[in-house]
Specification:
- By secondary structure, the protein is an alpha/beta fold.
- The chain folds into two domains: 57 residues, DNA polymerase, domain 1; 264 residues, TIM Barrel, CATH 3.20.20.70.
- The protein is 34% helix and 19% strand.
- The chain has eleven helices and twelve strands.
- The strands form two sheets. Strands 1-2-3-4-7-8-9-10-11-12 form a ten-stranded mixed β-sheet. It has a two-stranded antiparallel ribbon with strand order 5-6.
- Strand 7, helix 5 and strand 8 form a beta-alpha-beta unit.
- It is elongated and about 70 Å long.
- Bound molecules: S-adenosyl-L-homocysteine.
């Protein structure tokens, strides 16, 4: 990104006002620009603005930054997977999904990921860079414009670790939540983290009403350390303490994600251990049958193991669901997003 240009898509309404006034325009124009940006309009399309202002904006701002490089539409459900490309050569993926209650979008927060979970494709080439707040937001506006669909809920579960890009992600949350913009309520947003403890604590202080999803994937440190390098930094006991703080401060239930990996974490003993770990906390467990990635180091658990695991958790009165798999024919499921490997089919 050209440093001299103003990153207009990441600007809050206040920053935008200051910028517009600095261009010698009246401040109410900022509201018009903010709304137009949240609709994904280009400067040319902002016809409520004078030509002179549109020219000033395009001379001084970065817009647009991403373009749709490719897209795949599922034949099984209405899932669409987008490959977006940035001028600096980075590429990320975004998935638009359809549920009974409306459309949901799975957003990427970084180009690549440096967390190194061994079952996840997104981390295989490491992290290239963070996405800006505007680049995260723009995934919604580009997908909405292309598909003609309207996003009503968001999951920050695409490529990247949201809490490893904390400031930009928080800024994105305030932009997308703004009544003058897309106005998506915090209760319609889920943020998934591999468990960066100090950032969970920081987020708890903000008292946002979003759903915190925590990738637990194991009932003890020994198993967790086998698949998730972050587990070597923070023991589960510390992670759960931070999660308790989060639900105490926000009143929100924590959603624990648990990928079911055959022979690794799916035994009845694991289920018992997990139940005892979480018993009495404000939580929900979301089991994710492991999705295949090219490296094929692991297999997903059998249906019988998953149903047995579910029953054990239920016996301890732990709320549990099994995640539905959307877009499986286009590799759009959890852990399958990565750079490259697309043919040009747009
Ligand atoms: N970095 C965030 C977001 C990751 S994607 C995090 O770690 O939470 C969302 C979920 O998919 C996470 O729980 C992640 O661990 C899980 N996941 C990754 N690879 C997977 C795979 N191959 N099969 C099933 N779930 C997977």
């Amino acid at each position: 990104m050209n440093e001299k240009l103003f990153d207009i898509k990441s600007a809050s309404p206040e920053e935008l006002k200051e910028f517009i006034v600095g261009l010698g325009e009246s401040s109410y124009r900022a509201g018009q620009v903010f709304k137009a940006l949240s609709e994904g309009l280009s400067f040319d399309e902002m016809t409520t603005l004078s030509l002179a202002l549109r020219k000033k904006l395009s001379d001084s701002c970065v817009l647009p930054s991403a373009s749709i490089r490719s897209k795949l539409v599922s034949n099984l459900d209405a899932t669409i997977k987008y490959l977006f490309a940035y001028p600096d050569g980075e590429q990320i993926e975004t998935v638009l999904m359809q549920y009974k209650h409306g459309d949901s979008i799975c957003l990427s927060t970084q180009a690549g990921c440096r967390m190194g979970c061994s079952f996840c494709a997104s981390t295989k080439n490491g992290r290239s860079r963070n996405l800006t707040a505007g680049e995260i937001l723009e995934q919604i506006t580009l997908a909405q414009r292309d598909s003609g669909r309207k996003v009503s809920s968001i999951v920050l579960m695409g490529i990247g670790e949201p809490l490893d890009n904390y400031d930009n992600v928080l800024k994105f949350l305030s932009l997308v939540n703004d009544p003058a913009g897309l106005n998506i309520g915090m209760r319609h947003i889920s943020l998934s983290t591999c468990g960066i403890v100090e950032k969970i604590r920081e987020l708890a202080e903000k008292k946002l009403q979003l759903t915190l999803s925590v990738s637990l994937h194991a009932p003890n440190d020994r198993i967790r350390q086998q698949t998730m390098p972050i587990a070597k930094k923070y023991p589960i006991s510390e992670l759960l303490k931070a999660c308790k703080e989060y639900s105490d401060k926000t009143g929100r239930r924590i959603s624990y994600e648990y990928a079911m990996i055959a022979g690794v974490n799916d035994s009845r003993e694991c289920a018992e251990e997990l139940a005892k770990l979480l018993r009495g906390t404000l939580c929900h467990v979301n089991l994710i049958p492991l999705n295949p990635i090219d490296e094929k180091i692991y297999n997903k658990s059998d249906k019988i193991m998953i149903s047995d695991f579910t029953k054990t958790l239920e016996k301890y009165k732990i709320r549990v669901t099994v995640r539905r798999r959307l877009g499986s024919d286009i590799n759009a499921s959890c852990g399958q997003l990565r750079n490259g490997k697309w043919d040009d089919r747009i």
